[in-house]
Design goal:
The complex is a heterodimer of chains A (about 450) and B (about 220). Helices cover about 50% and strands about 20% of the residues of chain A. Chain A contains 10 helices and 14 strands. Chain A has helices spanning about 10-60, 75-80, 150-185, 190-200, 220-265, 275-300, 315-325, 325-330, 350-365, 420-430; strands at about 60, 70, 90-95, 100-105, 120-125, 125-140, 140-150, 310-315, 335-340, 345-350, 370-380, 385-390, 435-440, 445-455. In chain A, the strands form 4 sheets. Chain A has a 5-stranded antiparallel sheet, with helices on one face. Chain A has a 5-stranded mixed sheet with strand order 9-11-12-14-13. Chain A has a two-stranded antiparallel ribbon with strand order 1-2. Chain A is rod-shaped, with a radius of gyration of 50 Å. The relative contact order of chain A is 0.07. Chain B is about 45% helix and about 20% strand. In chain B, a hairpin with a 4-residue loop joins strand 7 (about 130-135) and strand 8. In chain B, helix 2 (about 35-40) runs parallel beside helix 3 (about 60-70) and helix 6 crosses helix 7. The chains are: A alpha+beta (about 450), B alpha/beta (about 220). Chains A and B meet through helix 5, helix 6, helix 7 and strand 9 of A and helix 1 of B.
Chain lengths: ~450, ~220
């Protein structure tokens, strides 16, 4: 049986409860590693920019003491300052009025905010740059030095670090998730084994579950075993009751039938022979019905007949069934025969004998004198079949479902029947997990009732 | 022929007693296993009809005790229970046949007759089935007192059928019965012997063909 959509699953629940927080935690770890890996890089490059700013400041002079700043920056010094194989370096020195003293006029120069120097990330000449502002005094004059570089080296270094950190972390994440998944799978294995053990059992098997299970599942198994015990006890007492009922019903019926038979044959009863024969017939019908009711009760699933199931020879069963009904078939001038091929099934001998007796009984009842009834068995596919075929008038197709109902009899039925025969057959077939089908007999005449067992032994 | 009926139900016991008496048997009836034991100690019987559901000691226990003391008396078990276990244990314990209630008197009488005949054929070499009389030791057959000449194979088939009178005998079993004389006998040959037997014995002792199974010698008196 496939679990329905949306059925609670411990595995899914465990995976969800473990994997979701773990993924979050590991994701957070990656983020923190990223931050702690990149901030030293930024600090180191910022410090280098600051050194450059201080170096520029060292070259500034307030020659006249009037606030006009001279930048004493020799071309070699500027070249050294700008020398970088990867990044472009920009700088600008402005006085208190914002007049450019030296450097790149288009570099935005703002007074530092907070720290001195303070750093920002902006766009310049179509490229992201890191820019530092440094405010200092040269003599009496205030100057602002802006020093900036493109971020290529920084990006390259960050990317390198990020790649190694994130790769490691992702591997760790994947490893953890895999371990959790495997752990949950392995941890839940006893539950799966228990499920398999229960699935493999026959529906009629009420023996206690005895596979070792973890203590967490033990209460469940105990409850199941208690339930099995209760059902087994109930089935046992039902069988006891049936045995007693059978005895209490059959013994007096035997006496009544035998006494009526003797009376009907006795010359003293000649005057009322008709009535005696009617009574005899009626008692026989009553006995038949009692037998059928008991058989039906025994065939029902609650009867728990599992311990009566053994390996059986269908051909021997078919032969016995024919032999048991031979006298009746001779009396009714019906040719009763068998076509029994070897086939063995797992079943209850008593129930299958009862099934076959009902089928043969029905066939003999519905077949006119001169007709044929054949009991067949054999192998079919992986299974086996047992069938009884007659060439009587047959069962109309629209009656075939109804004849399986309890106490239903075909209109115009004759014989001793009480309408339980096919209901018993169906119940017994079900107990053997076999399929019952009713079809036309040979050449479209008569009836063929077939029982197909899914597995043979 | 004397039959002991062990049955506690008065109505059933009375009917069995009267039915068997009408069929020509002397019948003693007791209602418990204890009474049955003492009856068997003082008298000798040809057959015991024993109900399983006796008060006190049940019929199976009685049967078990009889077999333990070495009594070879044929026993027909009556049971009102249909569980297979009861039948199997009855046969395992040494019952010769069983009959499930409710049964018909003629059926009971036929079974009794068959059991008595079988037990007598084991000690006595004569087998009488209706007009048929078989001298098992001498391989001689008479129909209504007139000797009939049979070949060895015909005799073997008839003997096998007669020892199982009223029961279906599979063709293969008849083949085996003949095979002790000749290894090369097919199932088809049996049909020939049966057909010859039918002609030689006349219609008084019908050998029925049971389609797909074999043959049955009818018990003409039943």
């Amino acid at each position: 049986m496939q679990p329905a959509e949306g059925t609670p699953s411990i595995r899914r629940r465990l995976l969800l409860l473990l994997l979701a927080p773990l993924s979050l935690l590991l994701g957070l770890g990656v983020f923190i590693d990223y931050l702690s890996g990149t901030s030293p890089i930024r600090t180191a490059y910022d410090r280098a920019l600051r050194e450059d700013a201080l170096a520029i400041a060292a070259h500034l002079r307030d020659e006249d003491g009037n606030g006009r700043i001279d930048a004493d920056l020799p071309p070699q010094a500027v070249a050294v300052l700008r020398a970088d194989s990867v990044d472009s370096i920009y700088y600008a020195v402005r006085d208190a009025d914002g007049t450019l003293v030296s450097g790149d006029g288009d570099l935005p120069t703002e007074p530092p905010r907070g720290d001195n120097p303070s750093f920002r990330d902006i766009q310049f000449r179509g490229e992201p740059i890191r820019i530092g502002s440094y405010a200092t005094r040269v003599g009496n004059a205030a100057v602002t030095i802006a020093i900036a570089e493109t971020t290529r080296k920084r990006v390259a270094a960050t990317t390198r670090i990020l790649t190694s950190i994130v790769l490691t972390d992702l591997l760790q994440l994947a490893g953890t998730l895999l371990l959790v998944w495997l752990g949950v799978r392995y941890g839940l294995r006893p539950l799966r084994d228990l499920g398999a053990q229960i699935r493999q059992r026959s529906a009629r098997d009420l023996a206690p579950l005895d596979a070792p299970v973890p203590i967490e599942v033990q209460p469940l198994v105990n409850a199941l075993n208690n339930l099995f015990d209760t059902v087994r006890a109930a089935a046992h007492s039902q069988q006891q009751f049936l045995a007693n009922a059978a005895h209490q019903l059959r013994t007096p019926l035997t006496g009544i039938i035998a006494q009526l038979e003797l009376l009907a044959r006795d010359p003293a009863g000649a005057a009322i022979r008709e009535q005696l024969l009617d009574l005899h017939q009626g008692s026989r019908r009553l006995a038949h019905t009692a037998n059928q009711l008991l058989a039906l009760a025994r065939a029902e699933p609650t009867a728990n007949t599992q311990d009566q199931f053994h390996e059986l020879d269908l051909a021997a069963l078919a032969g016995d069934g024919v032999a048991d009904h031979l006298d009746r078939s001779l009396a009714e001038q019906i040719d009763l025969g068998a076509d029994a091929q070897p086939a063995r099934v797992f079943g209850s001998a008593w129930l299958l004998r009862e099934l076959l007796a009902n089928l043969i009984d029905n066939a003999l009842s519905y077949t006119p004198a001169g007709g044929n009834v054949t009991v067949r068995c054999g192998r079919v596919g992986a299974g086996a079949f047992l069938e009884v075929e007659d060439d009587g008038p047959g069962i109309p197709a629209d009656e075939r479902a109804r004849v399986r109902e309890r106490f239903y009899r075909l209109p115009g039925s004759r014989g001793n029947g009480c309408g339980l025969g096919l209901a018993i057959v169906e119940e017994i077939a079900r107990a053997h997990e076999a399929k019952l089908s009713i079809d036309d007999g040979p050449g479209g005449h008569g009836t063929r009732v077939r029982i197909e067992f899914a597995r043979r032994v | 022929m004397r039959i002991l009926v062990v049955e506690d139900d008065a109505l059933v016991a009375d009917a069995i007693r009267r039915g068997l008496a009408k069929a020509g048997y002397a019948v003693d009836h007791v209602g418990s296993a204890e009474q049955a034991t003492s009856a068997m100690e003082s008298e000798s019987f040809d057959l015991a009809v024993v109900d399983i559901g006796l008060p006190g000691t049940d019929g199976l226990t009685l049967l078990q005790r009889m077999r333990r003391t070495g009594t070879a008396l044929p026993v027909l078990i009556l049971t009102a229970r249909d569980a297979l276990a009861d039948r199997v244990s009855a046969l395992d314990l040494g019952a010769d046949d069983y009959l499930v209630k409710p049964f018909e008197l003629p059926e009971l009488i036929a079974r009794c007759r068959a059991l008595i005949r079988r037990s007598r054929s084991a000690t006595n070499s004569d087998l009488v089935i209706g007009p048929l009389r078989l001298e098992l030791g001498a391989h001689r057959v008479e129909v209504d007192g007139v000797a009939v000449n049979l070949t060895r194979r015909e005799w073997a088939v008839l003997e096998c059928l007669a020892l199982n009178v009223g029961r279906v005998v599979a063709k293969e079993r008849l083949v085996q019965a003949i095979a002790s004389w000749d290894e090369e006998i097919g199932a088809n040959a049996i049909e020939v012997y049966v057909s010859r037997l039918r002609t030689k014995l006349g219609g008084a002792t019908p050998i029925r063909t049971v389609r797909g199974l074999g043959y049955r010698l009818d018990d003409a008196a039943s």
